[in-house]
Specification:
Blueprint (H helix, E strand, L loop, with lengths): L11 E4 L3 E19 L5 E22 L7 E4 L4 H18 L5 E8 L9 H16 L6 H12 L12 E4 L4 E5 L8 E6 L18 H20 L2 H19 L4 H11 L3 E4 L5 E6 L6 H14 L4 E6 L5 H5 L11
Parallel strand pairs: 4-5
Antiparallel strand pairs: 1-2, 2-3, 3-5, 6-7, 8-10, 8-11, 9-10
Amino acid sequence: MIPAAHRTVPGAGALPDGTGTGYAPCHHGEILQGVFLDTAGRRCAGLVTLPLAGLGSRAEFVRDPDSGAEQLDVVPAGRTKARRAAALAVEECARRRGEPPCGGELRLTGEVPVGLGMGSSTSDVIAAIRAVAGSYALLLEPETIARLAVRAELACDPLMLDDRPVLFAQREGRVLDVLGPALPPLVVVGCALGGGAPVDTLSLPVRVHDDNDVRAYERLRTLLRRAVATGDAELLGEVATASAWRGQQLLRHPEFDTLTDISRRVGATGVQIAHSGSVAGLIFDPAAPGTKHRVRSCVRALDNSGIPATRIFTTFPTTKELRNGPAHRGVGRQA
């Protein structure tokens, strides 16, 4: 069940003549991902994503009541997950309206890099669901959007929620734990490993987690909850690094040791890596002395190591000086 605090549904709208619009953000990989215990003591795959403002997917759905449900076109072609999500959303919304499902046209636009572990497919899927709902003049609840998104792509990121940090069961579409009201203030230097090449997660071996793994992830969950409660960027960085190290046992990025070495040398609190892609970030505490200098040193060290810096962003509203100052070199470059 999605907590009441998450029951707002931003990013959806209705236009005249059966047209709806939808939007969904992306993220910058995970802070924590592993296997955890739910309230019934059952093992669940779960993750905590690092929100990234400014990038996302937009969708427009034009409903055609005179066509059959199978006549649903998607532009650009090939977005099969978004098409499946739109069809499921049509079925849900038509049922609520007491109407037969129909077809229509779904148009997707956005600037989320594909295949880097930033939630591009989930962003498309959620935007599509919201656009379909808008065409019916409906506003679907976050838990409904999560359920449809999981049916459409088997696993989804918690992009249908707000930025409150949650441990989310991505294969079940439910919140396992609300970790607190907001992440600590962070500055993140984003980069792309492997030259930014997409990661084929389906080709990776399936890792079987034992009781020791579950205990380790539960400990990281406890530490992350403490970091959120106390605003401790240092502790959050330690959790993210430990999670990235465990993910590295499968992903095996050749630059991982270089990344953690740079983190230590420039005084970052830790590193975070997308567990289903190649996007990564070095985390800094904005309250620490000399953070701007550390960030500039980090960008130089990444470039000198052949790891492209992609963007610098924060988990809090920034001042003009931080957004436009010299520490923001490379912002907005696509991975």
